[in-house]
C-alpha cells in the first residue's frame, strides 16, 4: 500500500477522512449507490423507491427503470427498458459491480444517443485488452486477466452480452445484457469497465485481494461533498439545456399565404 498526498485544498487545512484509491477499478467493490441514483434524480428521473425498500428509479418518459436490491439473492442492479421496434431489453449487474462502471450505462440513459455508430470493443482495444473469437463467442480480456467482456451465442441461437471481474480467489461480480440492449449503452458500460483511472473507497470498504493496488489518501468531508455536487450540478445543467432546446425549437406551422400583389402593412 502506498501513501499519496491528495492535492486539492489550501495550506493549513487538515484532512479528516482516510480513503483509498483502488486499481483496477473492476475489483474495487460496489461503492456508494448514490453515485448512480443522485445523478439520475438530478437528470429528472422519478424516485419510485418504497420506504426502507430497494432503490427504484424511473425515466421521465417511463420507458426505463433502474433498480438496486441488496435484499434478494443474487441481488444487485436491474435495468429494464422498452424500445419501439426491438421491444424490451434488460441488464443485470451483480452486487459488487463498481458504481462507477454501473454509471457508465445509467448516465448514458440520460443523454441523447450519439450520431456515430457505437462499438463495444473499441474502448477495450484502446486499453490494450486482448480479443479472441472462438465457438461463436467474441471475448475481450483485460491485460491483468481479471475482467472480461464477451458476446456469446449458444448452439440454440440464443445470445447475450456477458461481462464481469474476478480475482484469483474468485471474489468479484458478473453481469449480463440481453442481445437487444441498445449498443450505445453497452459501449458506455465497456468504456467505464476498461477505464484506467482508480476509484475511491472509504476505509473499511476496500476488498481484500492480492490483485488490487491501493493508495492511501486523506480528504476533507467538504472536498468529497464538492466532488459529488459537481456531478449532480453537471446532470442538472445538461437536463436544463435539453429542456431549453426543446422549448426553443422553431415552429413548423406554415405562415399564412399572402396573395401576390396584395397590400402589406409596414410596421
Radius of gyration: 23 Å
Query: Can you give the mean pLDDT?
Result: 87
Order of helices and strands: EEHEEEEEHHEEEEEHEEH
Strand arrangement in the largest pleated sheet: 3-4-5-6-7-12-11-10-9-8
InterPro entries: DUF317_SPDY (IPR005523)
Protein name: DUF317 domain-containing protein
Pfam families: SPDY
Region (Disordered): 238-267
Task: Walk me through the topology.
Blueprint: E1 2-3, E2 17-23, H1 34-42, E3 46-47, E4 55-58, E5 64-69, E6 76-83, E7 87-93, H2 99-108, H3 122-126, E8 130-134, E9 137-141, E10 147-153, E11 159-166, E12 172-177, H4 183-193, E13 199-202, E14 213-219, H5 221-247
Parallel strand pairs: 1-14
Antiparallel strand pairs: 2-13, 2-14, 3-4, 4-5, 5-6, 6-7, 7-12, 8-9, 9-10, 10-11, 11-12
Protein name: DUF317 domain-containing protein
Biased composition (Low complexity): 238-247, 255-267
Pfam family, one: SPDY
3D structure, described in words:
This is DUF317 domain-containing protein. Residues 238-247, 255-267 have a biased composition (Low complexity). Residues 238-267 are annotated as: Disordered. Pfam families: SPDY. The protein has 267 residues and is an alpha+beta fold. The protein has one domain (2-112, 123-241). Helices cover 23% and strands 29% of the residues. It has five helices and 14 strands. It has a ten-stranded antiparallel β-sheet with strand order 3-4-5-6-7-12-11-10-9-8, covered by helices on one side. The protein is globular, with a radius of gyration of 23 Å. The model is unreliable at 3-12 and 251-267 (pLDDT under 50).
